[in-house]
């Protein structure tokens, strides 16, 4: 039956700005940048793992009509409709220092949690991102 999540999306207001942020600041890699005529299909992925892509989706057709897209843009701009991503790392402290040095907005610093160490950042559009160094599952 169902096997894997291969693609998910996050709403961005400017795909070029999103591409710069997700690739040049976060360190993800460009997977697909294709003009489909009715939309730009722009995906990124964690380096070396093209099987899980994030669509950097601009509000509009074909997913929504222009009136709905305008409402979504307004909510994103207010920070009221930000998406959410969680990305793992082998070293949360090192990732934190790297992203801070690159000027990424930090929403909270690395903190020890029951599941590992994580911290929060925000993309230029208000989407929340958690970066986590997760503990090994019990029994490993």
Automatic annotation (TrEMBL):
Gene3D superfamilies: 2,3-Dihydroxybiphenyl 1,2-Dioxygenase, domain 1 (3.10.180.10)
Biological source species: Pseudonocardia alaniniphila
UniProt entry keywords in alphabetical sequence: Plasmid
Name of the protein: VOC family protein
Classification via Pfam families: Glyoxalase
InterPro entries given in the database record: Glyas_Bleomycin-R_OHBP_Dase, Glyas_Fos-R_dOase_dom, VOC_core
UniProt KW Nuclease keyword: no
Residues of the VOC domain: 1-134
């Amino acid at each position: 039956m169902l096997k894997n999540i291969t693609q998910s999306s996050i709403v961005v207001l400017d795909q070029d700005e999103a591409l710069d942020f997700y690739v040049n600041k976060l360190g993800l890699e460009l997977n697909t940048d294709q003009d489909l005529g009715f939309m730009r299909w722009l995906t990124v992925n964690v380096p070396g793992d093209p099987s899980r892509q994030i669509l950097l989706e601009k509000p509009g057709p074909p997913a929504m009509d222009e009136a709905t897209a305008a409402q979504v843009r307004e909510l994103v701009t207010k920070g009221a409709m930000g998406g959410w991503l969680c990305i793992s790392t082998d070293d949360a402290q090192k990732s934190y220092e790297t992203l801070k040095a690159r000027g990424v907005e930090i929403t909270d610093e690395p903190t020890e949690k029951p599941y590992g160490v994580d911290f929060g950042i925000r993309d230029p559009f208000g989407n929340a991102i958690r970066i986590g160094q997760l503990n090994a599952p019990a029994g490993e």
